[in-house]
Automatic annotation (TrEMBL):
InterPro entries: ASHA1/2-like_C (IPR013538), START-like_dom_sf (IPR023393). Pfam families: AHSA1. Residues 22-159, 190-323 form the Activator of Hsp90 ATPase homologue 1/2-like C-terminal domain. Belongs to the AHA1 family. It comes from Microbacterium limosum. This is SRPBCC family protein.
Length: 325
């Protein structure tokens, strides 16, 4: 993981994050100063950012908001105080309201980003300066250490490029914490088609089958927020097993980039999960990033133990075949 250290200093009133990347400073600089690239990693899993304004000049402003899986927005803004391309920039970082004004009672912080060439590539040193111990404690209590670590750890796939980062590695599962798992899979095909394959029943029934020997017998979906869906599978031929299904609700839809749904096993009292899917396209390939929120670690581990990742890989491999045709 890129982040090597995060420390807080109550006496100096600072929080310092250090990370190392296998890319030169010029490449890392571009990732931090191009809004479309920033959107691919800024914000921890489940809270991706959308930049609505970006004026990279001294006195200029960048404005963004992060959106939770349930649609809550957390806006913020930078005012650029200093720019020394490609090695350093400094901003005044503020929490803002929906109109872009600083939120009363929330701190504004001077923050520096420095990019230094090292043998492995680039070392980034990010220092946030607070005006009081109370402001430092407030931001840390909000999860700044964990959130910034998870956000910056997503930068590797941006710097490497999606194919180099994911191609040939199949479907991967990564435990983020007690209740969250991240699934990634690169699909050869444009994002618009991958989105359609997740929202159009006739396409879904051709690939969302899991291991060989099963067919999708029910596929009803309303991909608009508040809409319901229902899926069911049954064995065919000599395949052993009992049919099963899932049902749920579309919570958030931002076509063709993001969809958030609940998922419940039909006919059971098992708790539902929250599934947050983001599609990221580069050069005709699409990276599926699915963050699943479980009610607890026990449920998370029980689901992973069923061979879920292998079943998803079988389906995603079939999806590539469908898109190629």
């Amino acid at each position: 993981m890129p982040v090597t250290d995060v420390t807080t200093d109550p006496e100096a009133l600072t929080m310092t994050l250090t990370a190392e990347f296998a890319a030169p400073p010029e490449r890392v600089w571009r990732a931090f100063t191009q809004p479309r690239e920033l959107e691919r990693f800024w914000g921890p899993p489940g809270w991706p950012a959308t930049f609505t304004e970006f004026d990279l000049s001294v006195g200029g402003r960048a404005a963004y908001y992060m959106t939770s899986p349930r649609g809550e927005r957390a806006p913020g803004a930078w005012e650029f105080l200093a720019i020394e391309e490609p090695h350093r920039f400094e901003v005044l970082d503020s929490f803002t309201d929906e109109h872009g004004d600083p939120v009363e009672g929330m701190p504004s912080m001077r923050t520096t980003y420095e990019f230094t060439a090292v043998d492995a590539g680039t070392r980034m040193t990010n220092v946030t300066y607070f005006t009081s111990g109370e402001a430092l404690e407030q931001v840390v209590a909000m999860g700044a250490v964990e959130g910034s670590t998870m956000a910056i750890n997503q930068l590797d796939r941006v710097l490497a490029g999606l194919r180099e980062y994911a191609q040939g590695k199949g479907t991967r599962s990564e435990i983020l914490d007690d209740t969250h798992v991240r699934i990634t899979r690169l699909i050869e095909g444009p994002r618009d088609l991958v989105w359609r394959a997740h929202t159009e029943p006739e396409l879904m029934k051709r690939w969302l089958l899991g291991p060989d020997g099963w067919r999708m017998s029910v596929c009803e979906i309303d991909p608009t927020p508040g809409g319901r869906y229902r899926y069911a599978w049954e064995p065919v031929g000599e395949t052993e097993g009992e049919g099963f299904g899932f049902d749920g609700e579309t919570v958030l839809a931002e076509p063709p980039r993001r969809a958030v749904t609940t998922e419940h096993m039909t006919g059971t009292d098992f708790p539902a999960t929250l599934n947050d899917m983001i599609l990221d396209e580069e050069d005709g390939a699409t990276l599926i990033v699915l963050v699943i929120e479980y009610p607890d670690a026990q449920t998370r581990d029980a689901v992973l133990a069923t061979g879920m990742t292998d079943g998803m890989e079988a389906s995603y491999a079939r999806l590539e075949t469908v898109l190629a045709g």
